[in-house]
Design brief:
Elements: H1 9-19, H2 23-49, E1 59-65, E2 75-83, E3 86-90, E4 95-100, E5 107-108, E6 113-117, H3 120-155, H4 161-193, E7 196-198, E8 203-208, E9 215-216, E10 221-227, E11 231-238, H5 239-242, E12 250-255, E13 258-270, E14 280-287, E15 299-304, E16 315-318, E17 323-325, E18 328-334, E19 341-345, E20 347-351, E21 355-360, E22 367-369, E23 382-385
């Protein structure tokens, strides 16, 4: 490597100065100049070879333009087939179960006897109440006869007015006691009748919760009865999907055990509060024309058509494109002129298994980074490339 003249000046000057001195002084002078000369020479040589470092090449990233959905994609949620009404069957009095006449899965009709309690105590109470009613009725009859005699004697002025008042009071008391005994007798008769459990609606027994020989309190469930009639498909939806649902919205329901069949359903109820554990909302849909082969407990896939949101512009992108800005969801946007990255917050309408649907934060045509969002940084120079296998990012 050739250097200009100034690169050799320090060395030449030091040699000339050393030659002009005596031998001993020349050696000392040479040693003093050796280190500074070497440093100066290294600096000069490094200055001669310095070049500008080349700019780093733009980093390739998988990015694609955002395309507005022509129609908000339908989403499918897992569910279960249940009866619209399901109630427990329980005795209205306590006692010991001595007989069960239906089993799990049996169909019942209104008024059908399904279980019985030991009626011994209730029978005795009913008999005692009936006897008390008979005695109270006898007392009332006697008080009525006495009142009729005293009234006749009072018209003839044969008794004092105070005696007639006492007779009237005794009759009123006997009448009240008779009425009380009648009500007690009716209550005892009802309690005796309540020892027999009857189905109040037609349906199917879906659970057995007490067995023969068991002592149960009043209101303890013995069976679970699913009513015949309307059939529901029930699912739990996340809060991100809740905004896209409305009562009256239609859906398609497919059942796992019945492949190839699709049933129409109408959303009739949305839970007003989320489940405290799963943070999801229970949604109930009524099947419009269920076939006889639809059985309770079947697994269902419920697909909502989202017609109520067709006027909203949405963008569906792969789930791998979603990043975060603090606690808010965000995506990386490639600026059109500079080809640098910008982190932008977005509004997520819903999350699916392989994609997310954005309802705000991006515009049609903007290039969004689809992959590697955790390895890039804001302001980084990039080069957008299409995905190698587009089907890997299909929603």
């Amino acid at each position: 490597m050739n250097c200009p003249g100034p690169c050799a000046l320090p060395v030449a000057h030091g040699r000339a100065a050393a030659a002009a001195l005596p031998l001993s002084s020349s050696r000392r002078w040479t040693r003093r100049l050796a280190l500074p000369a070497a440093l100066a020479l290294a600096v000069a040589l490094s200055g001669c070879g310095r070049k500008e470092a080349p700019a780093p090449a733009p980093r390739p990233v998988v990015a694609m333009p955002a395309k507005a959905d022509e129609r908000l994609p339908a989403w499918t949620l897992p569910g279960e087939v249940q009866a619209r009404y399901s109630t427990p069957l329980s005795f209205r009095v306590g006692g010991k179960i001595i007989e069960r006449q239906v089993r799990l899965g049996d169909s019942v009709t209104p008024g059908q006897i399904v279980a019985k309690l030991d009626p011994a105590d209730a029978t005795k109470n009913a008999a005692a109440a009936k006897a008390q009613l008979s005695a109270a009725q006898h007392q009332l009859d006697y008080a009525r006869q006495q009142l009729d005699r005293d009234r006749a004697q009072s018209r003839e002025n044969l008794i004092a007015a105070t005696q007639l008042e006492q007779t009237r009071n005794a009759y009123a008391s006997a009448l009240a006691q008779r009425d009380q005994a009648a009500q007690q007798a009716a209550l005892s008769a009802d309690q005796l009748k309540y020892t027999t459990l009857q189905a109040d609606h037609a349906g199917v027994i879906t659970a057995e919760q007490a067995d023969t020989g068991q002592n149960v309190a009043a209101g303890t469930p013995v069976y679970q009865l699913a009513w015949s009639g309307d059939i529901d498909a029930i699912c739990d939806v996340p809060e991100s999907v809740l905004a896209g649902l409305a009562v009256g919205q239609r859906a398609d329901v497919t059942l796992g055990p019945l492949p190839g069949k699709t049933f129409s359903a109408v959303l009739r109820e949305i839970a007003p509060a989320a489940d405290p554990q799963s943070r999801t909302y229970r949604v109930k849909l009524t099947l419009e024309s269920p076939s006889p082969d639809v059985r309770l407990g079947m697994t269902a896939n419920i697909s909502f058509d989202n017609r109520s949101l067709n006027n909203q512009t949405t963008y569906t992108v792969p789930a791998t494109a979603l990043f975060h800005d603090g606690k808010a969801p965000a995506v990386w946007v490639v600026k059109p002129q500079e080809d640098t990255l910008e982190l932008r917050r977005v509004q997520v309408l819903r999350y699916d298994a392989r994609s997310v649907t954005l309802s705000g934060g991006v515009q049609a045509g903007e290039r969004l980074v689809w992959q590697g969002v955790h390895t890039v940084s804001a302001g980084e120079k990039v080069r957008a490339v299409p995905p190698l296998h587009a089907e890997d990012f299909a929603s």
